[in-house]
Amino acid sequence: MPAAAFFDLDKTIIAKSSTLAFSKPFQAGGLISRRAVLRSAYAQFVYLVGGADHDQMEKLRAFMSQLVGGWDVATVREIVAETLHTVVDPLVYDEAVGLIAEHRAAGRDVVIVSTSGTEVVEPIGEMLGADLVVATRLEVVDGKYTGGIAYYAYGEEKAAAVRRLAEERGYDLAGSYAYSDSITDVPMLDAVGHPHAVNPDRDLRKVAASRGWPVLVFTKPVALRSRSLPPARPTLAALAVGGVVAVGGVLWASSRKRRSVA
């Protein structure tokens, strides 16, 4: 039976949050204000230091509709496409690129499973030569985001998506691998025979120690142009679960501010 390698994206493959990395391009495109960009910078710092726990992620989801409703989908995709290599290329971990190459050489599919949205995750997956992408999806009507969330790739749902893929594509989960930095991804890590904690937050580090999971430390962001990647598959199969745009930092910063005021 074939096997797969499932990768979280933020702080696992790239050194920052993909939902925060595009704040400045979105400001330049007229989608968010300078104040929101500054809040995103603060949220990026908080995320890098402490990670995002369940409560923060739930607040992010709740506030998302307040910001993105009415955004033009084509504009978002255009901004991401034009700035992808400038924004993301320097943030990719050299160690992650090496792991992806090893799994591809061993004949395993590489699957990115991220709570970020398909407009961001799918192009990054294609850039990395991934075979499949699982990501969050916002509702779209007449080419614009309504603010509703159609699919939320988070927590237990990530594990459910992994199991569905295994059933559909015949993956041997006992022989498969998974990598993540976050305690919220324990269900996904539990779903495979070879879980790995990468740059783990404090809670995931404790779980990894108690269960004997390997802990990997990635420290060397590298420009992809300086690395030789295996040729990509003919088509990156983006599952029908993609779609949240890269605005998490703005929402997260707003939620933290409201919580501190409360």
TrEMBL record:
The chain crosses the membrane at residues 235-253. SUPFAM superfamilies: HAD-like (SSF56784). Keywords: Hydrolase, Magnesium, Membrane, Metal-binding, Transmembrane, Transmembrane helix. It holds the Pfam family HAD. The keyword Transmembrane applies. NCBIfam families: HAD-SF-IB, HAD-SF-IB-hyp1. This is Unannotated protein. It comes from freshwater metagenome.
